[in-house]
């Protein structure tokens, strides 16, 4: 159990260690940024936003049917695809909405762009349930030329952990509980993170 995202960042920093060979820390907005900020300061590395966005089911905005990364990389939820729960037209409509929010976030937080090319990054989030948005960020960063990517998480579901271990160069996850319902169940304090808080962490990082 983590007290809050700051505590999760401190525990994650201990798991990462301070002798790793990294060039930058990348946080997934919004909830991953406070965690990544602690890691970046501890490692004395610059902090960037690795923007991705959930593609939401029309009938349930909390359900991810896919995700999109900054470079336009698209991931589908394979189980939803296999069950035929979404028509092509419905997915395309949901994708357009997700890409509109993605553009807003990139415009607000900044684009990682060429900053990641040929560099070794630690990609941080506050946890992964399906792992779709984190995986979309991971794919996007690979496409933008990252030399090596380590995923670092306080908590992940078994399915998400397996996917992230397969798709990253290294995955450092503090706990992978079998009884997993939602990321928030592993935090005592797990409130929403506002855009202003994300920007504050990005602007206050002293290692740019």
The number of strands is 8
- Tell me the distance between the termini: 32 Å
Average residue pLDDT: 92
CATH architecture of the largest domain: 3-Layer(aba) Sandwich
The strand order across the widest sheet is: 2-1-6-7-8
Shape assignment: globular
List the helices and strands and how they pair.
Blueprint: H1 5-16, E1 24-27, H2 32-43, E2 47-49, E3 52-57, E4 60-69, E5 74-76, H3 78-83, H4 88-109, E6 120-124, H5 132-143, E7 148-155, H6 158-167, E8 170-175, H7 195-204
Helix pairs in contact: 1-2, 5-6
List keywords for this structure.
single chain; 208 residues; alpha/beta; Rossmann fold; Ybab, Chain: A; 2 domains; 5-stranded parallel beta sheet; 7 helices; 40% helix
What does the model show?
The radius of gyration is 16 Å and the shape is globular. α1 crosses α2 (32-43) and α5 (132-143) runs parallel beside α6. The relative contact order is 0.21. It is 40% helix and 22% strand. It has two domains: 5-48 and 111-204, Rossmann fold; 54-107, 2-Layer Sandwich (Ybab, Chain: A), CATH 3.30.1310. A five-stranded parallel beta sheet has the order 2-1-6-7-8, sandwiched between helices. α6 links the parallel β7 and β8. With 208 residues, the protein is of the alpha/beta class. The mean pLDDT is 92. The protein is built from seven helices and eight strands; from the N terminus they run αβαββββααβαβαβα.
């Amino acid at each position: 159990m983590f007290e809050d995202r700051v505590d999760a960042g401190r525990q994650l920093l201990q798991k990462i260690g301070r002798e790793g060979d990294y060039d930058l820390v990348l946080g997934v907005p919004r909830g991953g940024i406070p965690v990544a900020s602690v890691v970046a300061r501890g490692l004395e590395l610059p902090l960037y936003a690795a923007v991705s966005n959930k593609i939401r089911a029309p009938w349930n905005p909390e359900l991810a049917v896919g995700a999109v990364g900054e470079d336009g990389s698209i991931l589908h939820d394979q189980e939803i695809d296999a069950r035929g729960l979404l028509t092509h037209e419905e997915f395309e409509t949901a994708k357009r909405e997700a890409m509109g929010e993605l553009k807003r976030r990139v415009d607000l937080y900044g684009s990682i762009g060429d900053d990641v090319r040929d560099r070794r990054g630690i990609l941080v989030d506050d946890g992964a349930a399906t792992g779709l948005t984190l995986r979309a960020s991971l794919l996007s960063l690979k496409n933008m030329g990252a030399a090596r990517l380590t995923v670092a998480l306080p908590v992940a579901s078994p399915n998400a952990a397996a996917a992230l271990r397969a798709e990253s160069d290294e995955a450092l996850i503090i706990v992978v509980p079998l009884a997993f319902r939602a990321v928030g169940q592993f935090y005592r304090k797990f409130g929403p993170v506002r855009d202003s808080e994300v920007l504050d962490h990005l602007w206050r990082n002293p290692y740019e």
